[in-house]
Each structure stands twice: as structure tokens, then as C-alpha cells.
From TrEMBL, chains A, B:
Residues 40-59 bind DNA. Keywords: DNA-binding. This is TetR family transcriptional regulator. It comes from the Bacteria.
């Protein structure tokens, strides 16, 4: 663990970046361990060995830290998904659905952040930070949508945007439903009346996105 | 506004129910006015004219109050949707999609609550309250899924459950994205690079659920 002393003077831009990276590292580690909702600003300050008041010189709020991690998540996920889509040789809705579901399910902390973003993270930061974040998601769409349209010719730009919106909103929500606390998880397994509450994120995404893409592909082929 | 005096003694079960209803009414009114996230336990206590400590004898937490309103939302939405599905005369995926999208978009506070449920509301209440809530959502599924399968013969039970999961998770997330604060809303309208951040809940749900249902209906017909 880094001590407060190490962070006493960071007047150069480079030193500032080093501190920011240390704060983001601590938030990322704690978020992955216990879920975003359980991580407070105080937890991050303690993990990074800074006083909370000093940390607020680098990030306005707890939400800004996690919004930065969400942007980082988009910059990781979008090119990984685009690459997987480009590897699809024959137009196949199910292969596109599997690429979305597989790359999202492999990134559980990103799914956690996706659900937190519109509810919490975009609400407690300045407009300038929302602006930066939306430019990042826009750039992600700019990588994903053309790759979807190359994999399934006939799909429109709007189909691609709808697909990204559907997959990210469901991945976020299903991840939350699939990770209840231990007592609630025990409840769901205790009684067949709660079977509907047990969610396996990836297969459900594959089924729903697969059906959506078969519907879109059928319609576009029919109208072509 | 009711005063604290009116609530001084509520020893009979009937009086307890009256107080509970008054608390739920206040929470519903405040939630509809300003969005669930902005309503604190103190706000509800003030609106209902009770001390916060007295209110905690009726509800364990703020989240329990809103989880009760979410259950009430399911008991309102499920039969309304089932009735609309039963009125569909010819099997038509788009009519089923329009029934889901229309009944959800007409209930903005329910959409707000749907997004809050797995992130917040189910986390800060007792297991017993989650259990009651899940029985309510299970009963809702029991009304909706058979009506979907009657409207689109060939769909499986799992197709119906997936459709409810897809529609409720997207309605919740899209509602949050569609209702940013005023400064962020102005940002989105200021620059075409943010066009992807502008969401119109109902048309987007119609497009996505319509494609999903055309895909499912096509597949089930093909395998029949």
C-alpha cells in the first residue's frame, strides 16, 4: 500500500497523472472485488493512501472515478467486440449475438458499471465529464456499428445502435439480477417459485439478441 | 398535509394499514414528481407528517417503501398488458411488441422503479421482503406469459420469460437515459455527436422487441 507521504507533492502534470492512475487502480480493484455499489470514496482513499480531501483535487466525486472506469471499459470492449465481429466469415445472426454476449459476460465489472451509469454515475458529475464520457461511447459505437453491418449486410445504422443499446442495457441489468447478496441467492435456490429470479447472463443474452438479429436480418433481406 | 397528531396512535391493524397507505401515497407522489433517486426517507416523513423514527416502525428502509411501490406497479402493469395482448386478433409480432412498449412507456414511474430494483431496492431490505416481491413478479409473469403465447402461438414459456426480462430491463434503463438532468439534456441537444444519447423510450422498445419477436416467431414457425 502506498502511504500519504508518497503523494505529498504532485505539482507536475506527470505526477498528477500518476496519482490519477493510482486512484483509478484502487477503485478498479475494489469494484471488482466487492461490486461498485459497495465502494465508497473513503474506501478508495484508504486503499490508495491519500486523504479524502486530497483525492477530491483529482476527481470531483466518487461517481467521476467510476464514470472514468466505465469510459475505460468502453475503450476495452468496443475494439474487442469489433475484432470478434470481423472474424465472422458467413453472415449469421447467432454468431453476432454470441460475440456481443460473450464479450460482455467476460467483463463483469463493465456490466456492473453499465447498470450504474445512467442511474448514478452520470448524475453526480459535471456536464463537462458527461460530455467527455459520451464522446467515448460515441467512439465505441463508431467501431462496433460498422463491424456489425459488415457481419450482417442489410442492417441499418439504427439497427446497429439499437443492438448496442439493447445489449448494454440488458447486460447491466441481468448482471445486477444475477449477483444478489448471499441470503437472497439462497432464497432463489430454495423454492421453484423463484426460478424466474435465477439469471444466467450470457445464455439469456444469446437467446434474446439472437432472436432480435434473426428478426432484423429477415426483415432487411425481405425488403432488399 | 397531514399533521403528526393524526398519526399519534395507530394500535389497531386497520389504523396501521391506513398509515402504511399514507406513507406509500406520499412516496408515490414525490417519486412521480422528481424521480425516485431524489426522494429521501426524510422527504417522505415530512410529506406524510410523521417523524422519521415513527415511520421506520412501518417500513424498515426507504428501499422497502419503493420496493412496495414496484410490486404495486407489477400488479397494475401485468393485467393491463395481458388484457391488451388478449385483444390481439391475428398473430402479429409487432402488435405484441407495441403492447409491451406502450404499456411500459405509459408508466414512467414504474420504469424508474424497474431500473432501481436490482441495483438498490432489493439490496437494502430483508430477505423476507425480497421473497414477497419475487412472488409478486412471479404472479405477474403468470399473467403475461400465457397471454403472449396465446397471441403468438408457437412461442415457448422461456421465450415469454425472456421477453418480459428484455422489456422490463430495457424500459428501466432507457427511461433513465431518456431523463437526464436539464444541463445534460441541453448538452445532448447541442451537438450532433451526442445524437446517440437521445433516447425515445417507446419507439426504441417497439423496434427492438418487434425484431426479437419476429425472430422468435420465424424460428418457432420454422421448427414446427
Amino acid at each position: 500500500m502506498t502511504t500519504s507521504r508518497d503523494f505529498q507533492r504532485a505539482r507536475s502534470p506527470e505526477a498528477k497523472l500518476v496519482r490519477e492512475a493510482a486512484i483509478l487502480d484502487a477503485a478498479r480493484r475494489l469494484g471488482a472485488e466487492r461490486g461498485i455499489r459497495e465502494v465508497t470514496l473513503t474506501d478508495i482513499a484508504e486503499a490508495v493512501g491519500m486523504h479524502k480531501s486530497a483525492m477530491l483535487r483529482y476527481f470531483e466525486t466518487r461517481e467521476e472515478i467510476f464514470l472514468r472506469l466505465t469510459a475505460e471499459g468502453w475503450r476495452d470492449w468496443a475494439p474487442a467486440l469489433a475484432e470478434r465481429l470481423r472474424a465472422i466469415e458467413q453472415p449469421a445472426p447467432d454468431a453476432v449475438a454470441a460475440a456481443f454476449a460473450g464479450t460482455l459476460a467476460a467483463r463483469p465489472m463493465f456490466c456492473d458499471l453499465l447498470a450504474q451509469t445512467p442511474l448514478n454515475l452520470e448524475r453526480n458529475v459535471s456536464v463537462e465529464k458527461v460530455r467527455e464520457f459520451k464522446l467515448t461511447t460515441g467512439a465505441g459505437l463508431g467501431q462496433i456499428v460498422p463491424a456489425v453491418r459488415a457481419a450482417l449486410p442489410g442492417l441499418t445504422e439504427q439497427d446497429g445502435v439499437d443492438l448496442v443499446a439493447a445489449s448494454t442495457s440488458m447486460a447491466g441489468t441481468f448482471h445486477q439480477i444475477a449477483t444478489p447478496g448471499p441470503e437472497v441467492a439462497a432464497l432463489y435456490r430454495s423454492d421453484p417459485r423463484f426460478a424466474h429470479a435465477l439469471v444466467d447472463v450470457e445464455p439469456r443474452l444469446v437467446r434474446i439478441l439472437g432472436a432480435m438479429l434473426r428478426g432484423l436480418a429477415g426483415e432487411r433481406a425481405g425488403s432488399a
